Amino acid sequence: MSGICGIVSFGAAPPPDAATVRGMTGALERRGPDGTTHWIGDGVALGHTRLVTTPEARTETQPLVHAPSGCVITADLRLDNRCDLSERLSIDLGARTVGDAELVLAAWLRWGEACPEHLLGDFAFALWDPRKRLLFAARDQMGMKQFIYGCTGPSRLIFASSPRAVRLVAPEAFPLNEARVADYLEDMEAIDRTSTFFRGILRLPPAHRLIFDEKGLRVSRYWQLEMPPERTGSAREHEDAFLDAFTEAVRARLRGAGPVGSMMSGGMDSGAIVATASRLLGNTGAGPLPTYSVVSPVPDGCKETQAVDAMMDVPGIHPTRIRRDGPPDSLRHLLDAMARSEEPFDSTMSLLRAIYRAARDEGVRVVLDGAAGDIVFSEGDVHARLLARGRWRDVLRDAAGARQFWNGHGPRPARALAAAAWRLALPERVRLMRRGILSTLSPVDYSGPPMVSDDLARRVDLQARRRAFFAPGQGGPRVPARVAAILIPGLTVGRERYDRVAAEYGIEPRDPFMDLRVIRACLQTPPEFMQAQGWPKYLLRQAMREKLPDAVRWRRDKSHLGWQLTDAVLAQHPGLGVQEIDDLRAVGVHERALAADARRLPPGDENWKRLVYLAAWNGN
Fold first, then answer.
1. Which residue ranges in the chain fall short of pLDDT 50?
2. Residue 287: left if φ>0, alpha if ψ -120 to 50, beta else—which one?
């Protein structure tokens, strides 16, 4: 992870100056503590704060200038197809050290606006081409890296890895986005892939490119996840195909300038990563793999801690255990870090902060995680797909197993079968049309306590925002259900949270489940091998046979210590003061929420937490 930023001005727009771009990089130095550099040209200024996480990044200085063309790039990236790219671009990687940014720059010179289509990995970059007088930028296909931008007029663009760095340049041009405050209070973080807490500052969506020149700003999609043909073969053949893709994804993410660590929660996703990464490191004589786990001080009855204990049998790891009830100074640090959150949505991420802090203190700059595992293994409408093949017995068996897995929750088998038959009988476009009509004619059933003031609700048209949030599929692209399950905005905002929190500690997060090869392997697998007898991630559980302890592979409990750690952190909070209550009222919190005197609500109350997080963010 590194920080990137820049300003481009045309015509009468004020040209950028060195002091302004230095202010932007100053706001990004936690992302890149290994050096800050700038480049200033005619109406253009680019900045870069470097975090060295690959061998090539040790010697590559950005912004990087291609002397023959004058093109300049600033990038936050890790490319996984370096060998393939170098061959196609006729660059000899053995003759000298070639950085990832140099490869992207060469890809631009060869393929122009199509260059992101040829890149595999995690990236966000901006490139100035003086020959065409344009800025070109792109974000990776799944959204692991962030690119934030805003315009202060038709002729001036500001971009950075962080909304706050963009806003530093012209705070008056980017006021508080009241609609996003309402989203926060209503728990609608994933309403879209573009908005931020500052009006006029936007996130570039994943798989999109941006062009800014004298004609203005243009944003377009360059890639779309498509449903590949289903693979045929035995269960073992499907497992091997997935495991090959997953192993390559983990191998690519072990490329580092120092030790690479991994989260180890005791779940299947991080467990699979740890088992695969430790084996790969052991095969090359490297290792052990540093792992980081939050555990309960009393393991009896805590299924997650018991699963972490079981993971200790995995060879080739160096585990660090972080107690949920850590010492007061540790909890105080997490409370202070919560108050410095980039967004109030990030305030709950105490577990991530504890892990990233421990990794940083041990000299680890890259931490693997499996945050996308649940999404990538989403099956969409698995019962309808099974029924379409005449496998109604499998539907009944899976529904019965799912009720057992989820402790009695979910439809009974007969009801699940009937629902699948209904979905098959009614075409998807008719169901979407019906859902859209009902959501338009009927008010959203929202029975929770009022958090948004009436005035704010009117100003942002809260009812319309609720409808947009609770009506999935409305206005979106027509894609197969399995693809749609992976492309949900929730995955994007979740990865952006990890990015922002990791940036606080100079850590780069990497997720093998976000690798396009892994996603394709999952999409190619028939539904009966992805989910079976009620077990989600059945393919992964089978692929990890003899690699993970059975206590982890067949763990049913889905408890997570993150919320408990956050509650322990909030127990250190002194409570909301009078000024904070007044500030919350000013940003649009409902009077009834404040009249209940939030200062005296029990610390475990979810609304109290929400107000505490918003007050802390609003005051920093």
1. 443-447, 474-476, 598
2. left
